[in-house]
Amino acid sequence: MxxxxxxxxxxxxxxxxHLRDWLRQHQPMPDSRxxxxxxxxxxxxxxxxxxxxxxxxxxIQALSEGFATRVARLQTELTQKEAAVSTVSxxxxxxxxxxxxxxxxxxxxxxxxFDWFMQRLESFLAVEQRVRWCAVGVVDITSFKxxxxxxxxxxxxxxxxxxxxxxxxxxxxVDLLAQDPRRGGPTDLHARFxxxxxxxxxxxxxxxxxxxxxxxxFKQSVERHDWSVEHPKLALHPVRxxxxxxxxxxxxxxxxRGSARALAGELIQWADKLMYGAKGKGASHVFPxxxxxxxxxxxxxxxxxxEPARRANV
Length: 314
What we know:
Blueprint: H1 16-26, H2 31-65, H3 67-81, H4 85-103, E1 112-113, H5 114-127, E2 133-141, H6 144-151, H7 153-171, E3 189-194, E4 197-205, H8 209-224, E5 241-249, H9 260-281, E6 289-294, E7 297-300, H10 306-311
Parallel strand pairs: 1-3, 5-6
Antiparallel strand pairs: 2-4, 2-5, 3-4, 6-7
């Protein structure tokens, strides 16, 4: 949950979609001027993101290049000041964390890679003690092969990058459905599954319906994006996504002890089947399934939005 915001800022737009709506309500102007303004805003934000990524890469390079110097300096401090063992240990832990973080990211989208995502999901299932809801989802870009075949792989890469940015923006939204990392709890995770597929974990929900709302919001944000900015032909062939979501009632830790890895794999498989079921039916909405855990095994629950998914033989 996010922290309390001041009255002067909580009504201001928080995302690009909200900014479009805010301009439409508070700053009347011709549609062409509004579109031109949004393109300018997106250009500035894109440039700022590029600068941020470049600065991170430069920091990693500087960190690696200066490693020997930093070790030598630390050795000098040890001989001169009798540095505490805990300080040395913390120094190397931080250094290793900085270097390994880079290996856990997909270089194209900057999202978490799938192997690291699965490790985090397994760890979450193995230690989470709150008996609440969480959600695991799989996302696929509809008819992605058409974009590659007709517009080229460079445009395909642009589409993947934009969808991943929207996914990160929406799953990390500042509304009340998102987890506030400042509280020290598990944060929402989103990763590149591979190719044109992505996956995400929302670890702390009050009710299963919140997962559907977040997934629907993400789907709608993709559909409302001005894809002609990426390529003129996308104005006639805008990008769509299919989403499968498993809403899991976590249950007591004893039900998950020793089976977290298998449960993590099952959750992804169920979400993947739901996604392909929606794709096959040309579904315009997200249809999640509700699940629980009995004796270390994932089982469908008998109420709520799980019905459409059970009819799809998940």
